[in-house]
Write a structure and sequence with these properties.
126 residues, Transcription Regulator spoIIAA, five-stranded mixed beta sheet, 42% helix, disordered C terminus
Length: 126
């Protein structure tokens, strides 16, 4: 599941997986690996709880947004949800313009995002 060039790092915290994009890694060559990693994480776990850390991402290509939407949709079908961390003003704008902001949960830190699964369960009401 780990792509070449270490485009992202995976950290397991109890029952929460954190996928952190490395600075400069949101490129067309690495984003297919990102989508594959998300899909594999979702397939492995019955009720996946995933935090995606975008703290080092300056610009979000549309392919990355597409992978996040697809993964979040699959997770919701399995009772899971993606939490996003470290979203800058540009990335927030992408979520607002595409009207996807309400489909994701945004948190200030990985720890806060992981804790939110315990506080509210995996899925917030639609």
């Amino acid at each position: 599941m780990t792509p070449s060039r270490s485009a992202f790092k995976l950290q397991q915290m109890d029952d929460v997986a954190c996928l952190r994009m490395v600075k400069g890694a949101a490129t067309p060559m690495t984003l297919s690996d990102f989508g594959t990693a998300l899909a594999q994480m979702i397939a492995k776990v019955e009720r996946a709880r995933i935090v995606v850390d975008l703290s080092e991402v300056d610009f979000m290509p549309t392919a990355m947004l597409g992978h996040l939407i697809a993964a979040n949709t699959k997770l919701r079908g399995k009772g899971g949800r993606i939490r996003l961390v470290g979203v800058n003003q540009h990335i927030t704008g992408v979520f607002e313009v595409t009207r996807m902001k309400d489909h994701f949960d945004f948190h200030p830190s990985v720890e806060a995002a992981a804790a939110s699964f315990k506080e509210t369960g995996a899925v917030k009401p639609a």
